[in-house]
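Quick one: structure for this chain?
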Amino acid sequence: MQACLPALQQGAASLRGWREVLIYPGEFKVRRSHHDDRTGVVTEGDEVLIGEAWEHGPLVLSLADVQLDLEQPWDGYNVVVHEMAHKLDMLDGPPDGVPPLLDIPRRRWIQQFQLAYDRLVSAPPHGHDSPIDHYATESAGEYFAVVSELHYSQPALLRQAEPAVAELLEAFYGRSPAEGCEPPGFCRTR
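Got it. Here's what it folds into:
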């Protein structure tokens, strides 16, 4: 169900090109190789992950982390939403933080997300007062995925930190189901 939430407003086309979800019991290792264009050196190493989205493949998730997100839905993190944001972002090519936009002006999206991303990148990695995890500074694609997590788990904090980004995400995803929820998780009925 969590994987469907980010795709609801986008419609069935947002699920094109893949149909598999792989679930590991916990964290999993992925072997990566990196080619340095400047030196020509190739390095290999293992990376421990809790989730991954492949452009032309499955969504890969750690069941332990999915369960943790279900137990703590308002903590600002959600691996399923994060990886689904990557899948949506990759519908039009490699992840760049700009998913296919239906009714949102692309130029506005790029401008507002770039300004917010630049603010986070310029903040010190430790001790910054933003609710946006500093991991979002890895790339524009990671920024989009991390703020998507906040949209679904702490929309008021996101709106306070980056109101323009929060507004765009609400236009993209629809209203967050966390609206009206207080951090231990009490939701007001509407």
